[in-house]
What we know:
Layout: H1 7-21, H2 27-59
Amino acid sequence: MSLQHSNSTVISTAGGTFLSVLPNLHSEDVLKTIILATLGAVVSFSISLILKFFIRKHKK
C-alpha cells in the first residue's frame, strides 16, 4: 500500500502549518534566531578554515 501525495496537499499542509505558527512569532524571537544562525555560520566556517590549515600543515 503506497501513499500518494498531490502537490496541493503538500502546499496546503505547509501553508496551514506556517499560518498556525505565524501568530506565535515575536520580533525578539526572529531577531534572536537570525543572530544565532549568523553566529553559528561564522563559527562553523572559522573552524573549517582552522582545521584545513592544520591538516595542510600536518601533511607537509
